[in-house]
Amino acid sequence: MKTHETEALRVKTPPPLPYVIIYEQTAHHVGLLWEKNSHGKWELLVSFSGDGFKEYTSRK
Fold first, then answer.
1. CA gap 19, 21 in Å, rounded
2. What is the pLDDT of residues 14-50, one digit of tens each?
3. How far apart are CA 59 and CA 22, in angstroms?
4. What is the pLDDT of residue 11?
5. What's the number of domains the chain is made of?
């Protein structure tokens, strides 16, 4: 994953929930998904690539 930009979104939540900051990142995702076959060997199931975003939350 290659991050292009990070944006912090401050969110006020009603009590008793904590005050949190949500981080959103626009990103380009590239990956491979593997699975074991019936003989126990790893085989490539699918590869993927595309633009999207990642999000995570942190307490203030």
1. 7
2. 777 677 778 888 888 899 999 999 999 999 999 999 9
3. 9
4. 67
5. 1
What's the domain range around 50?
2-59
Residue 38 DSSP label: T
- pTM for the model stands at 0.49
Alpha helical stretches, state H, the chain = none
Question: Which pLDDT score is estimated for 20?
Answer: 74
Do you find a cis peptide bond into 15, omega within 30 degrees of 0?
A: no
Strands 20-36 and 42-59: antiparallel
CB 23 within 8 A of CB 60: no
